[in-house]
Amino acid sequence: MFRIRPARPEDTASLFEVRTSVRENHQGVGELAGLGITPESVSAMIGADPCCWVAVEDDRIAGFSMIDDNAGTLFAAFVRPECEGRGIGGALVARAEAALFQRHPVIWLETGRGTRAAAVYRHLGWGSEIDLGGGNIRLFKTRPA
């Protein structure tokens, strides 16, 4: 069984382990650094504002979700491949959504159109798809009434 808790700066190395372990939308440490996503930047974000949650299973981080609350976006949601299919991703997305909906009536995310992630998000109620080109889409979700 897993539990969700706020991420701490000291979780950063584990977040990168999870992020670089995924099969779909895989990016290595160098690629992430090219986008400005470094251990230092992630640790600083986590330390500055509650923006990231981790799923912990057997004292190991099994997945995480991360938001940009100012932009109203779900920035990341990743689960270790060996931990998929247990509801971890859905629980992490729900936690991120709850935080975003505190400030935003409509939230968004971007993903690849034909990815498993897109199918999961659609299953979780994300929709109103906008084509961003290059096979990428933006999905939206409205705060429940």
TrEMBL record:
This protein's record includes keyword Translocase: no
InterPro entries: Acyl_CoA_acyltransferase (IPR016181), Bact_Acetyltransf (IPR050832), GNAT_dom (IPR000182)
PANTHER family cross-referenced by the UniProt entry: AMINOALKYLPHOSPHONATE N-ACETYLTRANSFERASE-RELATED-RELATED
Record key words, sorted: Acyltransferase, Transferase
Domain of life: Bacteria
Residues annotated as domain N-acetyltransferase: 2-144
Designated name of the protein: GNAT family N-acetyltransferase
